[in-house]
Amino acid sequence: MLSIENWINNINSNKRLIENGRWLNITFTFGIGDKDYLFEILSGNVLSINEREILTQSGTFKIYGQKDSWNKHWLKVPPRDYHDIFAMLAKKIIYIDGNLTPFIQNLQYFKDLIASNRDKHD
Amino acid sequence: MTNLNFEDIIGRYFNLNLKKDNYRIYVEEAGQGTPLLCLHTAGSDGRQFRHILNDKRITNNYRVIVFDLPWHGKSNPPEGYELKDYKLTTNLYKEIIMSFCKQYKLIDPVIMGCSMGGRVVLHLALEHCDYFKAVIALEGSDKLEPYYDLDWLHRPDVHGGLVQAAFVSSQIAPQSPNNFKHETLWHYMQGGPGVFKGDLYFYWHDGDFDDRSNLIDTSKCPVYLLSGEYDCSCTPERTLETAKRIKGSKATIIPGIGHFPMSENPDLFKTYIYPILDEIIK
User: Fold this and answer.
1) Would the pLDDT of B159 be above 70?
2) Predicted pLDDT of residue A121
3) Fewest CB within 10 A of the end CB: N or C in chain A?
4) What is the pLDDT of residue B145?
5) Is the pLDDT of residue A120 over 80?
6) If phi over 0 gives left and psi between -120 and 50 gives alpha, with beta otherwise, what is residue B86?
7) 8 Å CB contact of A111 and B169
8) Which helix (H) or strand (E) element contains residue A11?
9) Mutate which of A23, A92, A105, A112 to test chain B, going by most B C-beta atoms within 10 A?
10) A26-82 confidence digits (pLDDT tens)
């Protein structure tokens, strides 16, 4: 797992990813264990990733799982069932709630955005 | 002509009559020998099998035949398709395949299908065991559990091609070559509206078969099951459970491959399919 700063940098420096998300303006919640992070996205760029401090801070949808599960997802070659967020959802390794329309409309963008925390050097 | 870089595949159209409907079916062929009829996955088309059609190791002994199901690829839907939503039922799927086999005059064919094709060949092994020389179920099982809402696949505020590719990208192994991964996804981006959803009606609901798969007689029709380690739809566990119910079937799990073995990693797939094809015609 990368630092928040490196994760943002990985996303915003990926021109193709930003192009794919260029219609997207949203805040969504990403849960790692008992911590939630709010991703603020404008035209596909991540403006900020901030830890959720009060419950009224909320995203349009929330995708969440345990830290160990995300760490497996972010391995250079993830094991089966951890290699893609829909594989993880199918196995109930992670969960998703809220208004899923923007998530599904931009599904590959969100998959790639989350996977971009993958450490290429493990 | 000698300097032109043609592949061995020949494509043409075949007119299939089924009840009151006429289907204009696109068919590709290569090779000579035992007919090997290949069935593509839900929401895609016969291009998935181009590496099989182009492999002389296979086509020296097999006449490989791949057709696009109606509504898929270059095969038309029947006239009047615009009047109702497409929904692939078990009976329609079986009728199309068996009508194709008979009208195409295939004798003693081997049939190999992937995903929903891997499901329907199990139905055919039970109901037409004297006709098929063997069945090969790629990513095949007799029952699956749905894991997303199919309505996402056909609605005006979601791009059907993009969402289909995004859904099935989860079923491709991370080890598969990038070019073949994206070729496989490209096919999914080109499906007609609601066709993938209509196919999954069979694959996830109407085609369940776990209550009858134990009736298949593999002494009359050998059954082979091949599934990928990274397939999160037809998982290795589901394939192995199916194999347990079909006495005499032979199941293999391929490490480092996903739901589209013949198109996402053809070289790896061939190392597993060659021995099966050799055994069938031994």
Assistant:
1) yes
2) 54
3) C
4) 86
5) no
6) beta
7) yes
8) helix A4-12
9) A105
10) 999 999 999 999 999 999 999 999 999 998 999 999 999 999 999 999 999 999 999
Distance from the B172 Cα atom to the nearest Cα atom in chain A, whole angstroms: 9
Which residues does B132 contact at the CB level (< 8 Å), separation at least 6?
B108, B109, B110, B111, B124, B125, B221
Contacts of A80 in chain B (CB under 8 A): 173, 229-230, 232
Strand order in the sheet with A61-65: A45-51, A35-42, A25-32, A61-65, A94-98
The verdict on a CB contact (< 8 Å) between A104 and B158 is yes
Residue B56 carries which side chain, given as an amino acid letter?
Answer: K
Q: List beta partners, residue B115.
A: none
CB within 8 A of B92, min separation 6: which ones?
A: none
Predicted confidence band of residue A3 (pLDDT cuts 50, 70, 90): confident
Q: Write out chain B residues lying below 8 Å of A104, CB-based.
A: 152, 158, 163
Which 27-66 residues of chain A touch chain B by CB within 8 A?
none
How many other CB atoms sit within 10 Å of the CB of residue B189?
Answer: 15
The single residue listed with the structure tokens 């190791």 is: B57
Q: Tell whether ipTM is more than 0.85.
A: yes
Strand partners, A98: A61
The whole-number pLDDT of residue A50 equals 96
Two structure tokens written together for B28: 């590709």
Query: Cα–Cα distance between B152 and B170 in angstroms, integer?
Result: 16
d(CA A105, CA A48): 22
What is the Cα B46 distance to its own chain's centre? Answer: 8
Whole-model pTM?
0.96
Cα torsion through A12, A17, A20, A25, rounded to 10: -30
Sign of the torsion angle spanned by Cα atoms A92, A98, A99, A102: negative
In the numeric block, the tokens 């264990």 are attached to A33
